[in-house]
Amino acid sequence: MKTNEQPVPRGITVELLATVDLGPEIEGMAGRQLRMRKVTIEPGGVFGPVHDHVGRPDVVNILQGTITDHRDGVATDHGQGVGWPEDSSTTHRLENRGTIPAVEISVDIVNAQE
């Protein structure tokens, strides 16, 4: 892939597990929600293109398989049981280079309209 080309998302399934409207819960959070999703990345799948988390902080935990996180020109493999934060300084893409589906739980704060 050329450096200016962006990978096309493929092999991704996203299941919404739960949401909480944060407006009634926390002052100043009107229009925001806490969201939990299960994301499955099939072997060879890509969660791209490169994206950031400005205004959408996230924490991830891997339930199965291995996910390769591409940040700042570095590819880091994360396996089952590993979690990491994605904050306003995060710019990355994810992929599954393995032979089994990679499954993660992702919890983030988003605009309620997303």
How would you describe this structure to a colleague?
0% of the residues lie in helices and 61% in strands. By secondary structure, the protein is mainly β. It has one domain: Jelly Rolls (Sandwich). It is globular and about 45 Å long. The mean pLDDT is 90.
**Residue fraction in strands:** over 45%
CATH fourth-tier homologous superfamily: Jelly Rolls
Annotated CATH topology: Jelly Rolls
Helices, by number, come to 0
CATH architecture: Sandwich
Inertia-based shape = globular
Helix and strand pattern: EEEEEEEE
Query: What is the CA-CA span between the terminal residues?
Result: 30 Å
**How many E strands?**
8
Summarize the biggest pleated sheet: 8 strands, antiparallel
The unreliable regions are: none
Key phrases:
114 residues, mainly beta, Jelly Rolls, eight-stranded antiparallel sheet, 8 strands, globular
Helix/strand layout:
Blueprint (H helix, E strand, L loop, with lengths): L9 E12 L10 E21 L5 E7 L2 E5 L2 E5 L4 E4 L4 E5 L6 E10 L3
Antiparallel strand pairs: 1-2, 2-7, 2-8, 3-6, 3-8, 4-5, 4-7
In short:
By secondary structure, this protein is mostly beta strands.
